[in-house]
Design goal:
By secondary structure, this protein is mainly alpha-helical. The chain has twelve helices and three strands. The chain has a three-stranded antiparallel beta sheet, with no helix packed on it. Helix 2 packs across helix 4 and helix 7 crosses helix 12. It starts with a helix and ends in a 15-residue tail after the last helix.
Amino acid sequence: MLNEYVTYLQEKGASRNTIISYTNDLNIFFHDLHIRPDDYVTPADIRKWIQQMLNPVEGKPLAISTINRRLNSLRSFYAWAVEHHKLEQNPMKDIQDLKSADEDNEKIMWLTEEEFEDLLQRMRKKPVQSRGVDPEEKYRRDRAVVYLLTYAGLRVEELSNLKLTDLDLEMKRIRIVGKGMKVRTVPISNILLAELEDWLKFRAEMAKKKPHVAESPYVFYSQRSPKFSVRGIQRMIESYSLPNKKLTPHMFRHTFCKWMLKVSRPIIFSPKSPV
């Protein structure tokens, strides 16, 4: 079957180097999975193979470009096999190329001031999907999270672990316990100070109604937990993404760094939306 595919490539006019590259990639795949070209293969098999290339037992991980080249070879082979009735199903149908961190950062590295204001408006208007969730409470918490990520440059783990005792509003500073248990102090801008004061005042009201909030030492909590988990923050941020702009907590850290470079003029936003 592989010989038939090579013949097809030759008749199609593929170059010698292309044919060699495709054949080598396919042989590596068949060898790694201990299968023959006409054996039944599932998307799960291919995803497992991708993970093996990304996290090999021995040696270094393959470059993203190399993995994508191999996937392209498989994509061409299985498309031919299904089209010529050699196989019934194409296991590559839903397998996408991998994206490198650089590619993702290039697309979502930071928000412009206009995009930030648009995000705040979407947060206010976005309907709550889960039953029993107070829309006002969710909006205020999510807004405070976004402001802290953007104006203090916190990592998502740092924000999740942030305690009430880490905030010193009088001295306008935040105590952060970062990677490797290294402690640093981050100044609180006037814009961030106003947001934190609003959130803490609202949080205090919630503490009178919810025992898990009253008992929580953390700045942010979830619907049922005294601590807003890393994954919970990630899901919350992602829920406000646009079709052409995926949001992640780390991009707000990039936004913080980007805006800090704008020393020629202050960053000023319009007044806060009404609550």
